[in-house]
Amino acid sequence: MRKATVKTIIAAMLFWSGSLMATEIIVREGELTLSRAEVEFALAGSPKQIRNSVQLDEASRYEFFVTLLVSKKILAELQALDVSENPAAYHQFLFKQLETARELDKQLFQNELVLPDFEVLALERYKISKNDIAPVPEIREASHILRLCTDNCDEASEAIETLQSLKNRLEQGESFANLAIEFSQDPGSKTRGGRLSQGIERDAENVDQVVRDALFAIPEVGGFSDIVRSRFGFHILKLESITASRTRSFEEVRPALVAEIEKRFRQDAYRERLLSLAPEETIEIDFSVFEALVNEM
């Protein structure tokens, strides 16, 4: 099976050099031709827009065929390249072919690889490690009143005094949202009554730690924080809601978990394939030649 597949794909790779057996000829320029199989292969690998243009527009079709003919001419010249004339170009061409061969080997190996039931493996892994792979942390929604004050600002005392006055009014029952609209200097949230646009996780790196610490220290929804200072200034926080931490169900994580396990399985399997091709005996290396080469580079 593998040999037959190899022959098929190698034929597809080599048809530019004219090594295919004769098939229906679509384009001819002297002795150079484009067969039906070659054109079909080239069209299949082209973007949809180009395929449509080739079908509907005669000028695009002509340009497409000319491009293919030129490519065949270039490949023929490269294959006939004299190493002594341009060794760098020759070896660049050679290594490109080696890269293509390796990609071909990898594709063939993956196509014939016997695969286990990844859903069963995913379920087993979920049962063992669900607390590590499927946690959803607690999320707290918050509002705040901000008085701007960056490092060494002159208004620090005034900002603290203002927020202390506001905190006293909050403790007397005034609306947090109304006070935020009137006094907060955060333009993004004040029109929403100080409501922050996103929930905050305990380890959210995009939020200053002092703000996170203050928010998660509030014991219950509706409570307020003490005045805290961040890189932006001074805040009073209000805890609006708590979404408790949980563990996602297997169905929630199944697609990503299956994909991850399959990817790793295929990578490990091909790594074993490459290891199986490694020399079985000690290889001989002429280090004097190698060192001379390195020193010349």
Descriptive report:
The protein is of the alpha+beta class and 297 residues long. Among the domains are: 1-80, no CATH class; 138-244, Chitinase A, domain 3. The chain is 56% helix and 13% strand. It has eleven helices and eight strands. It has helices at 2-14, 36-44, 48-56, 58-79, 87-112, 118-133, 156-171, 176-183, 209-217, 250-276, 287-296; strands at residues 25-29, 32-35, 135-136, 139-148, 200-201, 228-229, 233-243, 246-247. It has a four-stranded antiparallel β-sheet. A hairpin with a 3-residue loop joins strand 6 and strand 7.
Which helices and strands, and how do they pair?
Layout: H1 2-14, E1 25-29, E2 32-35, H2 36-44, H3 48-56, H4 58-79, H5 87-112, H6 118-133, E3 135-136, E4 139-148, H7 156-171, H8 176-183, E5 200-201, H9 209-217, E6 228-229, E7 233-243, E8 246-247, H10 250-276, H11 287-296
Antiparallel strand pairs: 1-2, 3-8, 4-5, 4-7, 6-7
Helix pairs in contact: 3-4, 6-10
Descriptive key words:
alpha+beta; two-stranded antiparallel ribbon; 4-stranded antiparallel sheet; elongated; Chitinase A, domain 3; 56% helix; 297 residues; disordered N terminus
Share of helical residues:
55-70%
In which order are the strands of the major sheet placed?
5-4-7-6
Mean pLDDT: 86
Largest sheet: 4 strands, antiparallel
Give the overall shape, derived from the CA principal axes: elongated
User: The CATH topology of the domain at 138-244 is what?
Assistant: Chitinase A, domain 3
* Binned strand content: 5-15%
